[in-house]
Automatic annotation (TrEMBL):
Residues 1-26 form the signal peptide. Pfam families: LIP. InterPro entries: AB_hydrolase_fold, Lipase_secreted. GO terms for biological process: lipid catabolic process. GO terms for molecular function: triacylglycerol lipase activity. The keyword Signal applies. Keywords: Signal. This is Secretory lipase. The lineage of its organism: Bacteria, Bacillati, Actinomycetota, Actinomycetes, Streptosporangiales.
């Protein structure tokens, strides 16, 4: 009798001891750190609540230099069921919001002042779930690594991974996936497309729509030098400095440059207009863009060297005053030359913002067809 009791106790304790002694699984990109229900509004003053299940999510991702980090974002899931199998997931990459945490899309959506929610709603109306990253350092501790493309691509892909791991979301890791973004989001979408085969091969990516893409930031920054939108180039300098500490931007600035960029480091996009008309030479006694350390990191984050394995929809405003049409056209040529199934649309839009308005619905419909499994036809 005593022997039987001992054997029974051993049988009970053995699996418990195994669990205790087993090493904990290391944190990995896409793991959910926390997911809290939230409410999203269409209009300021918290008017017109968006009728979805929503979570503010903290999740693990990877920095530009390969370090595990924590990124925030928002997951939106329609309340109605999806009738065609696993509910599709869209990784939506927002355009430039700014450098301060108060500028994060997760904040603006909770306050009813997120302009891009109009486009996101078109995905929700189709029954698709949408994962929207805030990007590294925007809504989490540390400086936002604005325009550091590799980090942004990781953040987009990991927001999709995290979406499938949020308890109660009902999302499957086997769901069809799409990615869309414009401007900063266009670069993020492009990097998600290029990195997905090696970084997140388990995701069932069907297509990527990227508009107004600043594929070559050196060319864009040179174009913006002295322009009304110079603040965007300066913000990218702050972002790269955060992503790559060896750049040590502050050491190369003059007193005026240090004061201006310190003041801009927590600005939202509209506030960056105070830097309009300035040049890099106003901020630094050295030729920042042509220093070897900057050229190397800018080249590392230039899109086009890796061929995405999924169809791409690329769109760009002919009159884009921020990101020249030639930058987008060059990316299209490089993708086509590498055999990518790329669809290119040069929009009649007279400026950058109008390009987002004109091209967004086209991109959404193109991406929805890829999600449904219809073939894509390039125009290379």
């Amino acid at each position: 009798m005593t022997l039987r009791v001992r054997v029974s106790m051993f049988a009970i304790l053995l699996p418990i001891m195994a669990l205790i002694s087993a090493p904990a699984r290391a944190a990995a990109p896409g793991d959910v750190v926390s997911a809290q229900p939230t409410t999203v509004y269409l209009l300021p003053g918290q008017l017109l609540k968006v009728p979805v299940n929503a979570w503010h999510v903290l999740y693990n991702s990877t920095s530009s230099t390969g370090q595990l980090n924590t990124v925030s974002g928002t997951l939106l899931v329609p309340k109605a069921g999806y009738p065609l199998g696993a509910r599709p997931i869209i990784g939506y990459a927002v355009g430039t919001h700014g450098l301060g945490d108060q500028c994060a899309p997760s904040v603006s959506m909770s306050q009813g002042r997120e302009a891009e929610l109009a486009l996101v709603s078109l995905f929700l109306l189709k029954g698709f779930a949408v994962a929207m990253t805030d990007y590294e350092g925007l809504g989490t501790p540390g400086q936002h690594t604005y325009m550091a493309g590799i980090s942004q691509g990781h953040a987009v892909l990991d927001s999709i991974r995290a979406a499938t791991r949020v308890s109660g979301s009902g999302l499957s890791a086997r769901a069809p996936v799409g990615v869309m973004g414009y401007s900063q989001g266009g670069a993020s979408a492009g990097w998600a497309a290029q990195l997905q085969p090696s970084y997140a091969p388990e995701l069932r990516l069907r297509g990527v729509a990227a508009g107004g893409v600043p594929a070559d930031l050196y060319a864009v920054a040179t174009h913006l030098d002295g322009s009304a939108d110079f603040g965007l180039a300066a913000a990218a300098g702050v972002g790269y400095d955060a992503a790559y500490p060896e750049l040590d931007l502050e050491a190369d600035l003059n007193d005026r440059g240090r004061a201006l960029l310190a003041d801009a480091a927590d600005d939202c996009v509209a506030e960056l207009s105070k830097l309009a008309g300035l040049r890099f030479s106003d901020l630094s006694p050295v030729d920042l863009l042509n220093q070897p350390k900057w050229r190397a990191r800018l080249a590392e984050n230039r899109l086009g060297a890796i061929a995405p394995r999924v169809p791409m929809f690329l769109y760009h405003a002919r009159g884009d005053q921020i990101i020249p049409l030639a930058v987008g056209a060059t990316l299209r040529s490089e993708y086509c030359g590498a055999g990518v199934n790329a669809r290119w649309v040069a929009l009649p839009a007279p400026d950058h913002v109008t390009g987002a308005i004109e091209g967004g619905p086209l991109a959404i419909e193109w991406l929805a067809l890829r999600i449904l499994g219809l073939p894509a036809f390039d125009n290379c």
